């Protein structure tokens, strides 16, 4: 200690001694505060721990195996990658296209027959079936109708098997327009091929037959999975599904749904997977609808009553559904990771005794989570509820005992100390609120001034924008409180501050547990690692010896810091790209800001409060404020804060090249106009394009048209476009948009029923492979029956939406509509019928191509010609 730092003590430094600062001449009761660099060292140490240990574990992938390892009966990433190159070379695979219905199907059948040529014929039977599916179902408030959708299905059966219960392994081979679908879902397709190759060519036995389904229409409203589970000959025997999908490319795959209500499936995952990546928190977030994605798993559960595991690629979602979803962003090691897990899961599940009688197994929800990818912890939700309450109660009890001990050792009345602690508790409640509110305030401010998504391409900005304000809010109230006169030593005051934070977290744990969220486990285990050192310190004398109690606390806090930072970093990595397709009506910064703040509170909540032990703790607060201010400046005033980058972090710009024609009741045309219908996907909307001087002169919102016309009078593509229709924008053009054909609706017959008040219209529709039919009866007319699903009429109100698509079979659609009208006057207009035809396999005319080429390279246009015809009958 230098001369300027010396303190003159009027007693030896022991418990409760009085000290005073020579500089300030101010007496206070307590221990010496630590040197100024201690506070900064705390922040630096934990930051380096995250960078050096947590992030590498998050991105860790196994060593990929080559054909030289084939004799070991393991997944060979080299072979899977070779298949993936061929898969990508086919190009886009939109339902109804040559790429999807012919080239990809031929590729799959060729590979499957090569595999069949090398199976262990004395052990297994392998059957290959090409299904053409026809059907319909209700989802997203519309009828999903499909015709000639193709599924490639393989059944692998042990010759000695008598089991009638099959496991289903599913992925899909179709794509979104413009995307070669290498990651979504080619990665999973080739993984299935390789797993089938390994299992069928090895002599490892299994009990239950395995169905490998590679379906041809997932991107098209999940139609192919419904076609299989509702109509395929093997579907009725399928009991458990492993569903494989993607919302990213090139990393570890996340198991984000299990069951529902069968905990033994998590046990299967624990036994079968080699590289764990899973959490209950992901399951609950996905099931809230926060994630703008759907999977076939929902179809299998809803329409097939299956149980199982839902697994998906989730890292680097920036390339998802874009032309950049290519093999160059998928390392071979990522294929090895998926393959190791899938092979282990299929082998474990196909030998599971639980599959012999599923109804005999215990039911209920499960809490599960991986620890840095190294280990998987799981226990039942019932156990979790009890554990949550027990840990919260233990926290409160131990805090109470600690408060009594502090009173005893300080020779202060216990009631006075308890009163002090109540004040501390209020301070920490304020701190917790500030820790959440300050990041949200930053998020609101950035969005208000047009700077949302500034972290989209620069995730390190999240530290300054949201982590620093959160830590500042968490620390500032206690910093102010500790400046006040107190009756106990400074070390004990700091201890009470940490107790106050623990009490707030315990109360939060009780509340969330009561609400029924299984994600409460995150708070519970955070408290566990505060309770352990607190109990140890109370049992020993460390509790009463100055700052000695902080030693074991800091050591034990390594565990919750690493886990919580790993967990919340995981969700930031997954959800940040999704914010680029979350719509213009939601401020995504509030979601990311809240998530980041919670991660900071749970990871650093107990640790950041220790900076108060330093004589210069205010410097840390000033540093947090300075970093936050600098980050806001960078986000709002420099190119670093611009969200988009070419290829790696693109803005999605979906739009339709539209020609719309309105026919009146007498057949005359009242409107025939063309333009572009934009459906911007993120909060910044059209602003970046305008700032990049893209010529969008005349662009208007659709508010008036949506109020005036059925479905805004536009060829809305699917349910997502319908949900966002009021936020779409219209750019008119003078020249008619070219389409390779026009939808042709023919009225075949109009029959007035002899009895009753019903009229029947029969139609034939010749249209492209993606078409929607909109039906709006007049106010005094009701639709009593039709050739589509009858159940839809009882559960939905007009306008009715039928989403129709076909794969290999382009036969024109025939349908009828029966309407009721009480006065039986059927000579007047009764209903409107709109036909929304999507021509997704062509680029468009020259004028449209010029517009597409004017889109900056930081954005990707996803567009095609579409035609809308509205009729009145």
Report on this model:
With 873 residues, the protein is of the alpha+beta class. It folds into 3 domains: 47-56 and 382-641, no CATH class; 70-357 and 366-372, Aminopeptidase (3-Layer(aba) Sandwich); 651-872, Sandwich (Immunoglobulin-like). The chain has 23 helices and 24 strands. The strands form 4 sheets. The chain has a 15-stranded mixed sheet that branches. Strand 1 and strand 2 (18-21) form a beta hairpin. Helix 13 (490-515) runs antiparallel to helix 14. The longest helix has 35 residues, at 414-448. The relative contact order is 0.10. This is FXNA-like protease. Its main location: endoplasmic reticulum. The chain crosses the membrane at residues 34-54, 387-407, 419-441, 461-482, 494-516, 522-542, 563-584, 590-611, 618-636. Pfam families: ERMP1_C (PF22248), Peptidase_M28 (PF04389). Residues 151-345 form the Peptidase M28 domain.
């Amino acid at each position: 200690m230098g001369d300027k730092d010396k303190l003159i003590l009027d007693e030896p430094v022991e418990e409760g001694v009085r000290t005073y600062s020579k500089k300030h001449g101010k007496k206070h009761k307590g221990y010496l505060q630590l040197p100024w660099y201690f506070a900064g060292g705390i922040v630096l140490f934990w930051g380096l721990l995250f960078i050096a240990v947590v992030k590498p574990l998050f991105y860790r992938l196994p060593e990929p195996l080559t054909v030289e390892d084939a004799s070991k009966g393991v997944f060979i990433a080299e072979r899977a990658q070779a298949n993936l190159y061929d898969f990508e070379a086919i190009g886009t695979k939109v339902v109804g296209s040559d790429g999807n219905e012919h080239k990809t199907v031929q590729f799959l059948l060729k590979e499957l027959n090569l595999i069949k040529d090398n199976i262990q014929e004395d052990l297994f039977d392998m059957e290959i079936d090409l299904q053409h599916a026809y059907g319909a179902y209700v989802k997203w408030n519309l009828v999903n109708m499909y015709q000639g959708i193709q599924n490639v299905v393989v059944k692998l059966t042990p010759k000695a098997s008598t089991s009638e219960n099959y496991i289903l392994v599913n992925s899909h081979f179709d794509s979104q327009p413009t995307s070669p679908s290498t990651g979504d879902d080619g990665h999973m397709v080739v993984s299935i091929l390789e797993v089938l190759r390994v299992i069928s060519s090895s002599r490892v036995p299994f009990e239950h037959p395995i169905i490998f389904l590679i379906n041809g229409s997932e991107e098209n409203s999940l139609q192919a999975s419904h076609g299989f589970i509702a109509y395929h000959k093997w579907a009725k025997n399928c009991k458990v599904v492993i569903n494989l999908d993607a919302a990213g490319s090139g990393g570890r795959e996340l198991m984000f749904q299990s069951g529902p209500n069968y905990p033994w499936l998590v046990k299967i995952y624990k036994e079968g997977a080699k590289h764990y990546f899973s959490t209950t928190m992901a399951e609950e977030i996905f099931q809230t609808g926060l994630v703008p994605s759907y999977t076939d798993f929902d179809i299998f559960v809803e329409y097939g009553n299956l149980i199982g595991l839902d697994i998906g690629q989730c890292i680097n979602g920036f390339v998802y559904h874009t032309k950049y979803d290519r093999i160059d962003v998928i390392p071979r090691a990522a294929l090895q990771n998926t393959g190791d897990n899938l092979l282990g899961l299929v082998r474990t599940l196909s030998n599971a005794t639980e599959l012999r009688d599923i109804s005999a197994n215990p039911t209920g929800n499960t809490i599960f989570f991986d620890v840095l990818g190294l280990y998987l912890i799981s226990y039942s939700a019932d156990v979790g509820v009890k554990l949550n309450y027990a840990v919260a109660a233990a926290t409160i009890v131990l805090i109470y005992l600690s408060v009594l001990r502090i009173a005893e050792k300080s020779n202060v009345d216990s009631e006075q100390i308890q009163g002090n602690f109540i004040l501390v508790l209020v301070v920490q409640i304020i701190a917790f609120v500030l820790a959440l509110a300050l990041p949200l305030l930053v998020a609101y401010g950035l969005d208000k001034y047009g700077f949302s998504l500034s972290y989209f391409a620069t995730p390190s900005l999240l530290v300054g924008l949201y982590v620093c304000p959160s830590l500042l809010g968490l620390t500032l109230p206690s910093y102010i409180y500790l400046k006040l006169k107190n009756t106990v030593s400074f070390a004990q005051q700091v201890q009470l501050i940490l107790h106050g934070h623990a009490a707030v977290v315990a109360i939060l744990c009780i509340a969330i547990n009561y609400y029924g969220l299984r994600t409460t486990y995150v708070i519970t285990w955070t408290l566990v690692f505060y309770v352990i050192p607190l109990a140890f310190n109370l049992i020993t004398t460390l509790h009463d010896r100055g700052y000695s109690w902080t030693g074991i606390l800091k050591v034990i806090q390594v565990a919750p810091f690493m886990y919580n930072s790993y967990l919340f970093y995981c969700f930031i990595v997954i959800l940040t790209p999704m914010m680029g397709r979350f719509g213009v009506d939601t401020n995504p910064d509030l979601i990311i800001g809240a998530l980041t703040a919670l991660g900071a509170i749970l990871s650093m909540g107990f640790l950041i409060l220790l900076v108060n032990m330093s004589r210069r703790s205010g410097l840390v607060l000033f540093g947090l404020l300075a970093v936050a201010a600098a980050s806001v400046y960078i986000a709002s005033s420099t190119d670093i804060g611009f969200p988009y980058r070419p290829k790696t972090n693109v803005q999605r710009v979906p739009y339709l090249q539209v020609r719309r024609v309105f026919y009146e009741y007498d057949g005359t045309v009242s409107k025939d106009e063309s333009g572009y219908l934009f459906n911007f996907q993120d909060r910044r909307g059209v602003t970046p394009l305008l700032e990049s001087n893209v010529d969008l002169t005349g662009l208007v919102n659709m508010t008036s048209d949506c109020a005036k016309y059925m479905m805004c009078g536009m060829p809305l593509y699917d349910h997502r476009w319908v949900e966002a229709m009021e936020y779409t924008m219209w750019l008119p053009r003078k020249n008619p948009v070219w389409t390779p054909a026009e939808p042709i609706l023919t009225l075949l017959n109009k029959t007035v029923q002899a009895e009753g008040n019903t009229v029947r219209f029969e139609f034939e529709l010749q249209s492209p492979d993606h078409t929607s039919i909109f039906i709006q009866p007049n106010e005094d007319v009701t639709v009593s029956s039709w050739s589509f699903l009858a159940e839809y009429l009882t559960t939905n109100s007009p306008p009715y939406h039928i989403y129709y698509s076909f794969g290999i079979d382009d036969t024109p659609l025939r349908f009828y509509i029966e309407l009721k009208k009480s006065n039986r006057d059927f000579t007047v207009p009764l209903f409107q019928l709109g036909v929304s035809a999507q021509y997704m396999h062509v680029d468009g005319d020259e004028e449209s191509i010029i517009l597409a080429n004017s889109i900056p390279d930081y954005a990707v246009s996803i567009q095609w010609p579409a035609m809308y015809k509205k009729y009145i009958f």
